[in-house]
Fold:
Amino acid sequence: PNVLVLSGGDMFSGNPIVDQYKDKGLPIIDIMNHIGYQYTAIGNHEFDYDREIMAERMKQASFPWISANVHVSSEGIISQPQPYVITSVGGVKVAILGLIEIGKESRIPSTHPDKLKGITFTDPVEEALKYRYLRDSCDLFIGLTHIGTAEDVRLAEQMPELDIIIGGHSHT
Structure:
């Protein structure tokens, strides 16, 4: 009861269980549901198949997908993700802020641009700074990111309100 099970994103692609299965992404969602994941950041590979598949997997997941810098327009197929969640673990109030990487030039995650219609992205660190106020609402403030090590360092330098950053994307 006093454990958080979190994912830094990239549940899809590059995995034989996912890549060879007819319903792309479904085996990983089933496994994560069974394990009891509680929250995931959205990774760039979640967009690899298409928005319809991502929307279906989001519905099948028993855990929220969070990202403060993903913005879905009215024509977007996926649901607008929550930017953050506040939960309690063993009496400790925990805020978890989700972020996804974007390219410096492209301003989108590392995936095919056609997979992102109806979705815009903002700079993850600039977006995170808008949530500094969460520090006053929790005992533990977690950045659950998929922005890579260099951006995690920039986030840590600019946002000392975070107690810990659990990051993905850079494979380090």
